[in-house]
Amino acid sequence: MADAVVVGGGTVGAWCAYFLRQAGLRRVVLLEKGVLGGGASSRAAGVVRLQGGTPEAVLLGRWSRQFYLRQRSEMDIDSGFVTQGYLLPCFTEAAVAAARERMAMQASLGVAVRWLDSAEVDAVNPTLAPDQTLGGTFCDDDGYISPARNVTAYTAALARSGVEVAERVAFQGLDLAGDRVRGVTTSNGRIAAGLVVLTGGPKLAEVGRLAGIRIPAGGARHQVAVTEQHPDLHPSRVPMVFDVSAGLYWRPEEGGLLFGMSNPDEPPGENRSVDMDYLALMRDRLARLVPVTGGLGLRRIWAATIDFTPDHLPIIGPAFGPAGLLHGVTVACAGGAGMMWGPAVSRAAADVALTGSTSVVDVSPLGLDRFDEAGRSRLAADPIALPFPETLPFPETLPFPETLAIQERTQSP
Fold first, then answer.
1. Which of 308, 329, 354 is the endpoint of a domain?
2. Tens digits of residue pLDDT in 342-362
3. Separation between Cα atoms, residue 90 and residue 138, nearest integer Å
4. Which among 253, 229, 302 has a CA at the least distance from the CA of 43?
5. How confident is the model over 191-204, as pLDDT tens digits?
6. How many alpha carbons fall within 13 Å on the CB side of residue 242?
7. Would you say residue 232 lies in a domain?
8. Alpha helix segments (H runs only) across 76-199
9. Average pLDDT over residues 71-78
10. Which of 289, 308, 327 is at the close of a domain?
11. If we measure between CA atoms, which residue out of 3, 56, 126, 69 comes closest to residue 370?
C-alpha cells in the first residue's frame, strides 16, 4: 500500500511527489504515462516572474523563486536559475494606469518593482527601438531557469528521496469507497492509497474525466524560437521583456534572443507543429521593437502543448465528484506557468493533501469550486498572462461510475 499516489510526471507532479516524501510519507508513487519531463516541462521557456497580476500570482512566483535559489544547498542540484531582470513595457495610457495599480499591489507583498519612464526603459534595454514606450515596470529579481536542467533536478530529487517513479504506467481511474479514495487503477493494476494528487498539465481535464471529476483546464499550442547570436544581444544588454499587449516575450539565450508566443484566436488543442504564419507575425512585431533581430536567422524553433485555465490562474484544492467532496483527492494545475509557479503549486498541493491548508498562499479562492457548471470562473482573469483562450468546451454532464477502472480509458499521463 502506498501512502500517496501522484498522477503526472511533469514539473507540478514531480515536485509534489518530492515534497510529499520530504514531509515524511514512507511510500510515494509517481505515475507517468510516458517519461519524466516528456511533455511541456522540457519545452518551456523557463521564465520566473514576481510581477504577477494578482496577489496569488505574486506569492506563488516569489515562493518558486526562493525555492530555485535554495535548491543547490538543499539537494546538491538546481534548475539553473539566472537573475536577469524583467521589463513589462506600456504602450498606451490605459496600460500605464493598470501597471501603476499593479505595482502598488506587488510592492505591498514585498516585490522590489520600480517604474521606468520612457527614457529609462531605453537605457535599461539598449536593444529596444527608442521612444517606443510610455514607460514600464521593472523588477531586477525576476529571471529564468533552464527547463531541461529543471527536469534533471526533479528527476535526481525523486531518486534521492526515494519516490517510486512508475514511467510508462497510465492512470485509469480512482478506486473509491463512497466519497473516500482508497487507491487508483493503472495500466499495471491497482495501487492502494489513502491520498491521491491529480496533475497532468494540458492533459489534466482528461485525467479528471478518468477520475470522474470536472476540471476546466485545457491545452494550447505555444511556440518558442531562438535567434542567431549577435553582439548586441549579450545578456548585459537584454533584460527579459513581456509585451503583454501582443502576448510576446523574450529573454537572452545562447547569445541570441529566445522569444515565445501563443495565438489567442487558436482553439484549444494539442497541435505541436509550428505555425509559420503566426511565427512570421510575431517576428515582425519583435523586429519593430528589437530591430537587430530583423536581420537574424533562427537557430531553433519548437512548439509544445501547455496547460491553461479560463482565468489564467492555478488550480489547487480538493476534488469534487457529482455527489460532492472526494476525500483524499487533491487537484493541482499551474495554469500555464509551470516554471514560474510550479514548485509553489506543488508544495501547496502537497500541504493541502496532507493537512488541508498551506502557508504558501491562500488557496481558498483557487479550488475547483470557483468554476460553475460551464467551467466559468468567478475570479477575474490574471491580466499578466499569455493570451490563452478564456473559455473551453466543457461537458454539461459527466457520468460517475463507482469503479472507473473497468472502463477503457487510457489517455492520462
1. 308
2. 999 999 999 999 999 999 999
3. 11
4. 302
5. 999 999 999 999 99
6. 26
7. yes
8. 93-108, 118-124, 147-161
9. 95
10. 308
11. 56
